[in-house]
């Protein structure tokens, strides 16, 4: 069977091109899958981190979370309140509106934030109170912050596991936080540059924004204090009544 040389060469070139394209796609796929295998042990963090300056309210601005987390489960109008208790420990509370819910604000409290060791002060520990009343420690590392405008954290939470080799599987969560509900353009540019250079994500386009439309009120301890005061008074009156009846 006679095959025209031009057609033969064309088929060969096409086959070579397809092989090259397949190899390129495979390579890019590997790069894509590997770019977020981030080692938290070698992650460059905020130098000379000051735990006391990290206190206060932080609004969640955008998030990159691992494949297990459904973006529809995110909270909107979401912020964190960190309240110092000692030099190395703070109360940690989050408030927000879960998406696809009634729209009511939800408070998640009872947790602690523990300062990092002197050798790695930006390696914080989020001590989460579970539904069983026990605590589970999770890594919360501060990559960068100026304390007054923004913070970038990498957190091994929500079903993820911090392995002995420093990797967080399946992936860590990355949060962009702000003292306000948005950043200035130059601050966003700075945050984006830090993410590109220090974290294995391309840019902020991969992050899911947190919408701030109707801010949740800041919970106060007043209500619980009043409630406990009433309980103490009731117990006191009951004790007095029992003592009187036995006399």
Automatic annotation (TrEMBL):
This protein's GO CC annotations: cytoplasm
GO terms of biological process kind: lipid metabolic process; response to reactive oxygen species
Domain of life the protein comes from: Eukaryota
UniProt cross-references to InterPro entries, sorted A to Z: Calycin (IPR012674)
GO MF annotations in UniProt: lipid binding
Protein name: Uncharacterized protein
């Amino acid at each position: 069977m006679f095959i025209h040389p031009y057609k033969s060469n064309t088929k060969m070139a096409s086959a070579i091109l397809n092989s090259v394209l397949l190899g390129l796609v495979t390579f890019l796929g590997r790069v894509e899958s590997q770019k977020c295998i981030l080692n938290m042990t070698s992650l460059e963090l905020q130098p000379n981190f000051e735990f006391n300056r990290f206190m206060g309210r932080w609004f969640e601005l955008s998030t990159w979370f691992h494949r297990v987390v459904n973006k529809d489960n995110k909270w909107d109008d979401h912020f964190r309140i960190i309240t110092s208790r000692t030099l190395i420990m703070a109360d940690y509370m989050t408030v927000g509106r879960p998406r696809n819910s009634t729209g009511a604000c939800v408070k998640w409290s009872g947790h602690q934030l523990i300062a990092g060791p002197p050798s790695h002060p930006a390696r914080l520990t989020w001590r989460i109170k579970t539904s069983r009343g026990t605590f589970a420690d999770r890594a919360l590392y501060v990559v960068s912050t100026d304390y007054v405008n923004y913070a970038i954290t990498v957190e091994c939470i929500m079903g993820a596991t911090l392995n002995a080799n420093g990797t967080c599987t399946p992936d860590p969560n990355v949060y962009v936080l702000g003292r306000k509900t948005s950043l200035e353009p130059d601050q966003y540019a700075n945050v984006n540059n830090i993410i590109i250079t220090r974290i294995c994500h391309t840019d902020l386009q991969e992050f899911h924004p947190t919408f701030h439309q109707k801010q949740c009120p800041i919970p106060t301890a007043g209500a619980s204090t009043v409630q406990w005061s009433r309980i103490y008074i009731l117990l006191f009156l009951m004790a007095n009544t029992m003592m009187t009846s036995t006399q």
